[in-house]
Write a structure and sequence with these properties.
Blueprint lengths: L7 E9 L6 E10 L4 E5 L4 H4 L1 H10 L12 E7 L11 H11 L10 E3 L2 E2 L5 E2 L4 H10 L4 E5 L3 H4 L6 E5 L2 H9 L27 H13 L3 E4 L6 H11 L5 H13 L13 E2 L7 H5 E2 L5 E2 L1 H4 L4 E4 L7 H5 L2 H6 L1 E5 L4 E5 L3 E6 L16 H9 L3 H6 L2 E4 L18 H20 L13 H7 L4 H14 L3 H17 L7 H8 L7
Parallel strand pairs: 3-4, 5-8, 8-9, 10-17, 10-18, 11-14, 14-17
Antiparallel strand pairs: 1-2, 2-4, 6-7, 12-13, 15-16
Length: 510
């Protein structure tokens, strides 16, 4: 015969991971008289519904009275009821809420927040989105956060919050009823990914110069030329030239990768480089899904680089979907069951051939005219207008590729220094602005304040704009690009040489 447990009420707190930070969820349990019933309410998804079985087994296997073995009416409520609850992050607060209401454990739940998945034997498994939960806990005034042992370093990135890692339900109960051990604060070390070096790339000096400009000001760039000329190597070398993310950016990017289950290190200190295949779907690149809305590659590239190799081979709808992030730095996803706005402020590096076979203009092209036209039309005018720099990457002479050819040295170090100095100038210029980090972030109203043109430079721009038929967007983007070139030259104003160099990168016939 099942034991009789006491009626009662209890409330503890958990959180639903989300971007840019989690949402606090009140987890309540009411145990009353009546025929046996055990339910979870508050718009739970299937994984939250299944928590009834997980917490029942975990509680039973820790020699406590299971909610399924009592003649009581048990209601577990997750509030706010209008928020859809997803994932197994609520297993721990659900179990503690029941144990507290049934008076099987005793502790003060105030200022404490819990997150974690329960195994049937009471072990606590790691979860996604811990950094988003920790950020929400800190912003909401919680003082203590209890998470799975494997997630403790990620959660401890948030300052001002005492984080405790637990590996089992038994350990968690002991920690709550006794004085818990203090968590160790994590040292924010950089990750150690291996990147391609500039020094490994022979020649292509003009393309290297263009890439330094693009990285200095956050400008989108397209590299086009025949196959095998080093376009992919240039793109993959780009991340090695960027400075580490600042603390605020690191937490933001780590939160995104944690929620998406793409976190390979405890903290993302280096700018991310995402390189989806050209067969990627709309949902995988932009985000979405049939049920739960998930971030895509564009959001995973936030504060970093999105490299799209074989750019025209992507589906036309996927390419067109890049309009919003390239213009506003966000992606808006609307589905019948859910909608979301995710950050997607990335630097686009696109690589493409001049035709499907790649050898147009060399005398070796075998493509039919209509195939070439179809290939080029995949990149519409609005997309081309949002790419600030179009750079030709031509064939290198074989003599420069030989094993005895002189290898460049010191280029990576020099490029890193130039980019760091240019970004430092921009940071000082924009001050504490949260909206402006690089020159590419400037809007039309910002250009008048921060991009001062000399008279001859402005005249050259106006003449070229009429000749090239630049749009208003192209006109402003050219000024922003010239501002970055001036920063690399350490000049306060944009001079004629800076403007002329910026104009030569505008889109032309490929």
């Amino acid at each position: 015969m099942a034991k009789s447990i006491e009626s009662g009420f209890a409330r503890v707190f958990g959180a639903q991971p989300a971007l840019p930070s989690g949402v606090i969820v009140s987890v309540e349990c009411d145990i009353g008289k009546g025929l046996h019933a055990f339910s979870i309410v508050g718009l739970p998804d299937k994984s939250v519904e299944e928590a009834k079985d997980r917490i029942s087994a975990a509680i039973k296997n820790n020699n406590l009275e299971s909610p399924k073995r009592t003649n009581k009416k048990i209601i577990l409520s997750l509030a706010p009821a209008t928020l859809k609850k997803e994932g197994a992050v609520f297993d721990i607060p659900l179990a503690l809420s029941f144990l507290l209401a049934s008076k099987q454990v005793t502790f003060l739940p105030e200022k404490k927040l819990f997150a974690g998945e329960l195994a049937l034997d009471g072990a606590i498994r790691p979860i996604r989105g811990v950094l988003a939960i920790a950020s929400a806990a800190h912003k909401s005034g919680f003082e203590e956060l209890y998470v799975p042992e494997e997630n403790i370093e990620e959660a401890a990135l948030v300052n001002g919050l005492q984080v405790y890692g637990v590996s089992s339900l038994k350990e968690l109960i002991h920690a709550l009823e006794k004085k818990p051990r203090a968590a160790t604060r994590v040292t924010r070390s950089a990750t150690t990914e291996e990147d391609t070096s500039f020094d490994e790339i022979r020649g292509q000096e003009s393309a290297k110069r263009a890439l330094v400009i693009a990285l200095s000001g956050g400008h989108n760039i397209a590299l086009y030329g025949p196959p095998g000329t080093g376009k992919t190597m240039l793109a993959r070398a780009a991340r090695s030239l960027l400075p580490d993310l600042e603390d605020e950016e690191m937490i933001e990017v780590t939160t995104i990768h944690s929620l998406a289950g793409a976190l390979e290190t405890k903290a993302v200190r280096r700018p991310p480089l995402r390189s989806p295949h050209h067969t990627s779907s709309y949902a995988s690149l932009i985000g979405g899904g049939s049920g739960t809305v998930r971030p895509g590659e564009a959001t995973l590239a936030h504060r970093g680089i999105l490299f799209l190799d074989e750019f025209p081979e992507f589906h036309r709808d996927v390419i067109q979907a890049l309009r919003e992030p390239l213009e506003d730095g966000v992606v808006s996803i609307a589905r019948s069951k859910a909608s979301a706005v995710y950050p997607a402020n990335f630097l686009l590096i696109a690589a493409l051939n001049p035709c499907p076979c790649g050898f147009w203009g060399s005398g070796r092209c075998e493509c039919m005219p209509h195939a070439i036209e179809k290939y080029r039309r995949k990149i519409s005018g609005p997309i081309a207008d949002r790419i600030d720099m179009w750079v030709t990457v031509g064939q290198m002479p074989l003599s420069a590729l030989g094993t005895k050819a002189k290898r460049a040295s010191g280029e990576t170090k020099a490029a890193r220094g130039a980019i760091a100095n240019a970004r430092s100038l921009q940071k000082n210029r924009f001050g504490d602005s949260e909206r402006l980090r690089t020159n590419a972030d400037m809007k039309a109203r910002d250009i008048e304040m921060y991009a001062l043109l000399e008279e001859n430079a402005e005249r050259a721009l106006q003449e070229a704009a009429e000749r090239l038929k630049l749009s208003a967007r192209g006109y402003h983007r050219t000024i922003k690009l010239a501002r970055t070139i001036a920063d690399l030259a350490h000049t306060e104003t944009i001079q004629t040489p800076h403007m002329l160099e910026a104009l030569q990168y505008r889109a032309r016939e490929i």
